[in-house]
Amino acid sequence: MKSASKLLIVAAMCTLAMACSKKVKETPPTDTGTVGTTQPAVDNGPTTAGMYGPNDLDTDSCLRQRVVYFDLDQDALKPEFQAIVNCHAKYLRDRPSSRMTLDGHADERGSRDYNLALGERRANAVSSAMQAAGGQSSQLTTNSFGEEKPVCTASGEECWSKNRRVEISYSAR
Q1: pLDDT digits (tens, 9 = 90+) for 60-92
Q2: Mode of pairing for the β-strands spanning 99-105 and 165-172
Q3: Which of 17, 149, 159, 160 has a Cα at 20 to 30 A from 26?
Q4: Taking a C-beta distance cutoff of 8 angstroms, is the pair 39, 32 a contact?
Q5: The whole model's pTM is what?
Q6: How many whole angstroms separate alpha carbon 132 and alpha carbon 140?
Q7: What is the C-alpha separation between 89 and 14, in angstroms, rounded?
Q8: Which residues of 57-93 are buried (b: 16+ CB within 10 A; e: fewer)?
């Protein structure tokens, strides 16, 4: 009789435990129509007013400016380009998944090695200004092409000034 009551108590406790357990209904994965591929999430716009969205890269007058020019043999950012840097830095802050490449260039004067180093210093100067304005270093990549990719091939100061530059491009919007 004593063991029968113990058995009855254990059975009642088991029944009570099963009654209190939460049943989780599993939902089958949705069929996306693709097999064996995953699509990255597409972020098509800002979620908060005042934040930049990917479409702003093509429509905003400040973000459409993607070239920073430098003086001869200089890698210091000119004050007139600080506004452009600030706009792009804000874009990087607003869109943490975005990635930017900064390509430094030099004019044809100077040795190849000097121009490569100068292009690198210019790209790094823009990168530092972007980071000072709030961009993250993980979002920035710098390259130097030296004098290898000129936008103007004539000789003269007007042409050379167009080649002393850093080009801003986005690899991820």
Answers
A1: 999 999 999 999 999 999 999 999 999 999 999
A2: antiparallel
A3: 17
A4: yes
A5: 0.72
A6: 13
A7: 61
A8: beeeeebeebebebeeeebebeeebeebbbbbbbbbb
Inter-CA distances, 153 with 25, 55, 71, Å: 68, 33, 18
Question: Residue 105: which of 161, 153, 166 has the closest Cα?
Answer: 166
Confidence of residue 44 (pLDDT cuts 50, 70, 90): low
Buried b (16+ CB within 10 A) or exposed e, 100-117: bebbbbbbeebeeeebbb
* C-alpha pair distances (Å), 141 with each of 6, 24, 108, 161, 173: 72, 46, 24, 24, 14
Three-state SS letters, 73-120? CCCCCCHHHHHHHHHHHHHHHHCCCCEEEEEEECCCCCCHHHHHHHHH
Residues 116-157: tens digit of each pLDDT? 999 999 999 999 999 999 999 999 999 999 999 999 999 999
Give residues with Cβ within 8 angstroms of 39, minimum separation 6: 32
